[in-house]
Amino acid sequence: MAGHGSSWDSAPTSPLPAGPYLGDTGQPPGGPAGWAPPAGQRSAGPPGTGAQSRGRARRRHRWLARTAAVILGLILVGALSLGGLLLVIPSVGDAPARAQAMDRQHHAAYPGPAVPARFAASLVSTEDHRFYSEPGIDPFAIGRLAMGWIAGRPDQGGATLYQQLAKMLYTPGRSGIAVEAEQVGLGIKLDLAYPKWQILRMYADVAYFGHDYYGLGAASCGYFGVTPARLSWPQAAMLAGLVQAPTADDPIAHFAAARARESHVLGRLVATGHLSQAQAASFYRQPLDLVGGPPGACAAPSTP
How far is residue 280's CA from residue 262's CA, in Å, rounded to a whole number? Predict the structure, then answer.
């Protein structure tokens, strides 16, 4: 390997036949026979190797420092913005009154029946699987939402149940990034003001399930002829799947779409550990017993 310095060039050589193991110089690996680099150079690599490594390390450290500073800055700006948002958005102390007014408008009972465990598990698994641990917002979903707006693909989904409830109670019919930011703040306030069970109950009371059924009690009775407490797993899964697209997935008008959505919800119940794969497959094969009757024949409101 020529090019290591003048001491190599001036040393006596013992040429060997050139070969692939020697390169083009005819010198053995490590230099000619009997030659050794000066003592101060024996541990050194090729010229400039140490300086280049130190330069790369310094550049990497600078890049990491700048990245950390940007991330910390974004966190600080986000925290300040969220704090300001919470100051300007309205209180949520009137949330139950708003839910009652909505139910009165739609001729639905308020408060509706208690939310049964099967429906609660189906809804949470599908719409907001971190519901029981998050503080009204899902940071991962907020990140996806922000990236979606930056990339020109808004409405990437991921709104928590708190934000969905805020949309139904406080911002119905409105859209845009400012409205979504308001829903984030309202979701945090809802989490601070009400226990989880009450959030689920208000949600179930005001959600639209398609086919002119408002509230879980009306939907359970109208679609299946039973109160919410008597819903089977496949029935609960189908109702939980309706809240995202109640008209498009209406099982009376669009049975195939509703069944596909039911299958998705059962899959989410498997993913979150509520059902085994065998149980989900068995439940999907069970009859749904759709009736499509009036919404109030079997749904009696519970005691407040």
Answer: 10
Q: Which two tokens stand for residue 284?
A: 């999907």
Average pLDDT, the chain: 79
How far CA 125 is from CA of 53, 119, 128, 144, in Å, comes to: 50, 10, 6, 19
Distances in Å between the Cα of 243 and the Cα atoms of 66, 161, 174, 301 are: 44, 11, 18, 21
Phi, psi (degrees; rounded to nearest 5) at 134: -85, 155
What are the tens digits of pLDDT across the range 99-142?
999 999 999 888 988 999 999 999 999 999 999 988 777 666 66
Residue 36: predicted pLDDT: 55
Structure tokens at 162: 């708190």
The alpha carbon dihedral of 56, 59, 63, 64 has a sign of: positive
Q: Is the pLDDT of residue 152 over 80?
A: no
State the DSSP code for 153. Answer: -
Task: Please report, rounded to a whole number, the percentage of residues in the chain having pLDDT higher than 70.
Answer: 66
Q: Distance (Å, rounded) from C-alpha 268 to C-alpha 272?
A: 6
pLDDT of residue 201 exceeding 90 = yes
pLDDT at position 302 over 60: no
Q: How far is CA 275 from CA 60, 233, 269, 284, in A?
A: 47, 10, 6, 12
Amino acid letter, 85: L
Token pair listed for 298: 């079997």
Q: Which domains does the chain have, with CATH numbers?
A: 73-285 (1.10.3810.10)
- Evaluate whether 299 touches 113 at the Cβ level (below 8 Å): yes
